[in-house]
Amino acid sequence: MNAATEPSATRPFAAFEWMLAGRYLRARRRETFISIIAGFSFIGIMLGVATLIIVMAVMNGFRGELISKILGINGHLLVQPMDSPLDDYDAVASRLESVPGVRFAMPFVEGQGLVSGPAGAFGALVRGVTQHDLDRLPLVSRKLVAGSLDNFDKAGGIAIGSRMARSLGVVVGDTVTLITPRGSVTPMGVTPRIKGYKVVAIFEIGMSEYDSTIAFLPFPEAQLYFNKDGQATAIDVFLDDPDAISGMRETIEEAAGRPCFVTDWRQRNTTFFSALEVERNVMFLILTLIVIVAALNIISGLTMLVKDKSHDIAILRTMGATRGAVLRIFMITGASIGTFGTFAGLLLGYIVCLNIESIRQFISWVTRTELFSPELYFLSKMPADMNAGETFSVVLMALVLSFLATLYPAWRAARLDPVEALRYE
């Protein structure tokens, strides 16, 4: 058909184009195979989008929970003394707390020891803090499962994590023995220091590493126990915005008013969070392949549909349908599969993310296995945090891939010569 006989163009995306596209989406008996391919394309895109959203949400939740747990116990910036012991910790902490953007500064005494109880002995990181500072750590003070921190400074007891308590076989009121190799200095050398402490509180942070290894002593008691009389090991600085550490380092160093070495939470956990970021990016690339494969199925399904409908296309062209109208009909057909699949995947992913912990518990119950072991993954519950920007990117990517997959088959349909298609009819 030459340009002179080319029918006049119809309004783009007219009602008849949508009607024909809808009819092509509904399979008839002799088009069962094409319908199966379209169904697989729909399911593939739905599962691909849902899997991407779920995995990204779990990775975000995992990272967010770890950061909240790590920063709930450790400061955003750690100020350590240089050249001389930190014996002016109260004055330094006061100067640091006067810096804009600093929530509070917490001096502490830290040492390692062996905690033993009726059920065994385990290594522990022992921190000496005041009751006032411990109350400012809601991850500890508001996560008590037994006991109380009232009168913690004068009680002379110890607060331990729930996993440590279970491993030691102790409850509140029992006595645990704390052993450190750096004890008293005698003429015979340094002897280990052994002392019993009553368990006054048991907390559960929700991060297995902390619940099984961290113990808190009153600040003066820790000074005596670790031979730090009148000194602190370091000062934890907590900021209003944890991500503002880059612009705060120099200010903190100046406010300290003494030689000090300042490190931030990213430096102390750089390997861990770098590994998480690499894993997250690799998972995104791998799971994107699912969506790409589903989009390729749209190409194959539409190509077969165009070949099967070549007679109908020829009749449409002779009745006045333009090449643009034919192009749009098959683009609507293919894009509909991708669009409905994408939003079905979004809905599925959203539902799964809302119930991720219940689903994990159900699968663990069915398979009778520990699906999300706290010892391996640090957290006691599986988190999921859907990021609006990432979710939008996944949906947009799936829609673009689905749209691009329709272009070639639709172009083939529009280029079909009605004379050739009807020659042998």
UniProtKB/TrEMBL annotation:
Domain of life of the native organism: Bacteria
Membrane-topology annotation of the record: Multi-pass membrane protein
Annotated transmembrane regions: 33-59, 282-306, 326-352, 391-411
Entry's family note: Belongs to the ABC-4 integral membrane protein family. LolC/E subfamily.
Pfam family, one: MacB_PCD
Cellular component GO terms held in the UniProt record: plasma membrane protein complex
UniProt domain MacB-like periplasmic core: residue ranges: 42-254
Domain ABC3 transporter permease C-terminal: 285-418
Species this chain originates from: Breoghania corrubedonensis
UniProt keyword annotations, A-Z: Cell membrane, Lipoprotein, Membrane, Transmembrane, Transmembrane helix, Transport
Protein's recorded name: Lipoprotein-releasing system permease protein
GO biological process: lipoprotein localization to outer membrane; lipoprotein transport
Location(s) in or outside the cell: Cell membrane
Phylogenetic lineage: Bacteria, Pseudomonadati, Pseudomonadota, Alphaproteobacteria, Hyphomicrobiales
